[in-house]
Write a structure and sequence with these properties.
Immunoglobulin-like, alpha+beta, 14 helices, 2 domains, five-stranded mixed β-sheet, about 45% helix, four-stranded antiparallel β-sheet
Length: about 525
Amino acid sequence: MTGSCGGHLSSEPALKMDQAFLTFHNQLLDEEVRVFYTSDYCYKCVYQPLVSVKARNSSAHLVISTKFTLMMRLESQSRNETYCRWSQKYGEGGDYSVWIKKLEAPSNPACTHTVEIPLGFAVEDSGPKPKPTRLRSLDTFRGFALTAMVFVNYGGGGYWFFQHAPWNGLTVADLVMPWFVFIIGTSVVLAFRSMQKRGVTRLQMLRKITWRTVVLLLLGFCFLNYSPRDGPLSWSWLRVPGVLQRLGFTYFVLSLLQTFWGLVESPQREHHWWNPIQDVLLYWPQWLTIILLETLWLCLTFLMPVPNCPTGYLGPGGIGDDGLHPNCTGGAAGYIDRLMFGDNMYRWPTCRELYRTTQPFDPEGVLGTINSVVMGFMGMQAGKILITYKGENFRILGRFLVWAVVLGISAAILSKCTRDGGFIPVNKNLWSLSYVTCMGCFSFLLLGCVYFVTDVKGWWGGQPFTYPGMNSILVYVGHSLLGFYFPFSWEMRSQQTHWEWLLQSLWGTALWVLIAYLLYRKKFFLKI
């Protein structure tokens, strides 16, 4: 609709220049209300109808003009009585919410941004920020994980702690991929909520999900498994599982969960006994799905019979366990992958050198992918916390800390705080349950710290990690395809010390950060 002041207001979901999103939430009123508007630039103009909001727990979404300050008033649909008035200059490209709710008393506003009226109602604006920006902590976290992943993939200077653990236990290299999976889950929640507010339908979301998943799977299978330096392509050795394949499948499952059971409004400002755990209870179908998936992982891991191997075996085989189970590498996880993929899987597992194993074992196998979904779901939980408690920074940080403590205690119990002697050892090759809970603990702590420093206090803008974080697909695929070519690497002369290898690893990583920065300056972001 077009107002008399010349400002354009529309219900179209796509934003144009000088426009912002505005959502009205009628939480507790038992009647339909109408919102009228005019502009301070429109001299003595008559208020024009903007939107109607249905009774109790209803929402209305629209696009508003941001050229001038808008003056609005809220009226009863049935009684033509004005409940409240307010004016606001909205920022271009912003995403605003107005909450309509009852007050316990006219003198008790619900929060700082309210307009009190005699009947005991209030309108709450999500804040007068001129132009909301994306959370810097997410790009910083993602970019940090990706940068560390690139450094590790370039060899990490040849230091053992930048290599993956031979079997159980943790090194620096074992931390980075779970962090990346975690932030995928967080991004899914925030991105899909934004699409929902823009009016994107479930069918459109499903198309986007499917397309992106197919592209990730094809990138992983067709490109990262092979390069010209490998010689002629042969199907006999082509690896089926892979990092991008796992990321693609994980993204697909998380996106389905969010599409069908995640697009719900969070009535966090109502008073219920379950408010402290509403970010769990509101999404109970998702939690039920994750519990079923984890139950499947536990049953297959500990109950599935594996020929010539102990049931529930989690060891590396080879000369481990007194050499009693040389061909049982990975237990049920390895057995399932060998049944499905045969020789088309990773042939040089991290346990091969130390444990002298002979069986192939793929760290991106089928069973581990189940727990990759669980890891991503923990990231989704972080996204729900950011949405549910938006604007309440210390409450967000408190929730992050609670989850970190719960997951950390779970990991400690499962592993008995030992490397090899727990109920379920921490194992990156298997993506064991204790590994996932341990990494979930670290992820909540790290995201909380970055969120506090970048988004709450503004002490750091996240540079240089924000640049690769905003172009993660390009950096990951690029370094995988070109990483062993000049100028990213060269044939090293000194194999006796770490210095040249470390220099090469730092140089190659820094080049990709620089490329990401230059692409950021050019406003080029590879999206699929």
